[in-house]
Amino acid sequence: MFNLKVSDIIAAMEEWAPQELAYDWDNVGLQLGDKDAVVKNVMITLDVIEKVVDEAIANDINLIISHHPLFFQPLTEINFTEPKGKVIKKLIDHNISVYTAHTNLDIADGGVNDMLMEKLDLEVTDVLIPTKSEKLYKLSIFVPDPHLNDVKQALGKAGAGSIGNYSDCTFEARGLSSFKPLEDANPYIGEENKIQAVNETKVETIITESQLNYIIKAAEKAHPYEEMAYDLIVLERKGKVSGIGRLTVLPEVLSLKEIAEYVKDKLDVPNLRYVGDPSNKISSIAIVGGSGKGFIQDAVRRKVDLYITGDLSYHDAQDAEELGLNLIDPGHHVEEVMKESTKRYLEGYFQENLSTLNFSISNISTEPFKFIK
To answer: What SUPFAM superfamilies does UniProt report for this protein, alphabetically (predicted)?
Structure first.
């Protein structure tokens, strides 16, 4: 059993929520620490504040995974008497690394917005604001006929040929290939400096950009030739669309008041605010975890009846009311749903290492607001 490093945990997180999904203004990735440090204990939190760091020290944590960045803006100084400086000093003194997945985890499939939808038992119908569409490629591989099934099986097992609700999609065209092995070649078929003709099948399939290297390696492993011949063509057609926020349509029309009570109960918040007549009928909903006040116009353009997000100001609420958009603000802190889901993902990913690797959730509430009922 080998020791896992900070870099191994980062690689797992970025399979789920690649850094390139994040907004340009965001600061995601390793915030502080050593990628080569050995990891035994990982703690997941919404925010990295001093109380959370004290908790990490008490529990011998090597790596903190946070949703909100430790550093949003570049630092001009690190003063150990200031709150941020105290946090940094404690992290360094106790060799604790910090990694952040923020807007990339909001946008990712199964990320924060999907977690909120799952918590609310709502079915996702679309993203609110598309930010990226995955590039698709057509991969064509030339295979000697006796090895055709081996290569096709390797492609399918690696995830090639996925189209909607269908897998292992391929097209085949048979033909005659020819080649001449040169002096330093080690041919599977043929002799040095002699033209060799072989009955081969061209297998075509579709793959995504994220799958590209993995699938080609899988095909090369199954292919008998020293040099596998293949074509790779970028397609105009786009793959899966990623984006911020999620849309849904309710199975039955409810009033704004009914939805507000439902959201309060499901998200287990002490209070929430709403905008609109309590009797307004709600059928379609947009949701953005965290602070989504910048997307009010997007919700209007998507013609939803209700927009659920946090950190709405007085003027945001007025603008939405004038636009005829109902709002529910359950607060920013509901994003803490990411803690349990991230723990579950990592435990599944590293299930064979759980005898030497522990994942835990911070028990410290980082919600700054208190509520009078």
So the answer is: NIF3 (NGG1p interacting factor 3)-like
